[in-house]
Specification:
This protein is of the alpha+beta class. Among the domains are: about 1-20 and about 35-90, no CATH class; about 140-195, Head domain of nucleotide exchange factor GrpE (Nucleotide Exchange Factor Grpe, Chain A, domain 2, Roll). Helices cover about 65% and strands about 15% of the residues. The chain contains three helices and six strands; from the N terminus they run H-H-H-E-E-E-E-E-E. It has helices at about 1-25, 35-115, 115-135, and strands at about 140, 155-160, 170-175, 180, 185, 190-195. A three-stranded antiparallel beta sheet has the order 1-4-5. Strands 2-6-3 form a three-stranded mixed beta sheet, with no helix packed on it. A hairpin with a 2-residue loop joins strand 4 (about 180) and strand 5 (about 185). Helix 2 runs antiparallel to helix 3. The two termini are about 60 Å apart.
């Protein structure tokens, strides 16, 4: 925008300089051979050029203001669209989680009235599997850690313990699982590394 403004100002200054050169800056002293009639015609022509320059200046100013307003509207519209996309993405994920919340509520009711622990355990296992499947469908995957080499892009070492020589630099235990959303790490795995 600043470059356009500068070009616009340069154009206006050039037009003003040309107008002053043609008009003789208000019909100054007459050159040899000039008559009053010739000078009057030149002054009138200078006035016409001034009007043209003023009109061109107004046109440029109008175009600049319109372009500036149009860009401002574009910026606001794209920002609003981005916010709507983020909100819609969050809404979609939450809707997918609501059936899991229903299952957890049913499991809590079953625990309160349960006489058999095995049936409750199976229900909790099913809910956990359904949650994993839902997250996987949304692009969330667990980061492999135990038995792998330490990768600081994926893992966060929380402890180092002595171990056998073949396990040095490898992950011995996972304190907290890590997850990726597609290719982006959303939570690093907290791991124990052998030394």
């Amino acid at each position: 925008m600043a470059r356009q403004e500068f070009s616009y100002q340069k154009h206006v200054d050039q037009q003003i300089n040309e107008t002053e050169a043609v008009s003789g800056e208000g019909c100054g002293p007459a050159a040899e051979g000039d008559t009053c009639d010739n000078m009057a015609e030149e002054c009138a022509a200078g006035d016409d050029n001034s009007a043209e320059v003023a009109e061109a200046s107004d046109d440029w100013r109008d175009k600049y203001l319109r372009l500036s307003a149009e860009f401002d509207n574009y910026r606001k519209r794209t920002l609003r669209e981005k916010m709507e996309l983020v909100a819609a993405g969050g809404e979609d994920t939450l809707k997918a989680m609501l059936p899991l919340l229903d299952d957890v509520d049913r499991a809590l009711q079953a625990v309160a009235a349960a006489r058999e622990v095995e049936a409750v355990r199976e229900g909790v296992v099913l809910i956990a599997q359904k949650l994993r499947d839902t997250l996987r469908a949304k692009g969330v995957v667990e980061i492999e850690s135990t038995g792998c080499d330490l990768d600081t892009d994926l893992h966060e070492a929380v402890a180092i313990v002595p171990c056998a020589p073949e396990q040095r630099g490898k992950i011995i235990d996972t304190a907290q699982k890590g997850y990726k959303l597609k290719d982006k790490v959303i939570r690093h795995a907290k791991v124990v590394v052998g030394e």
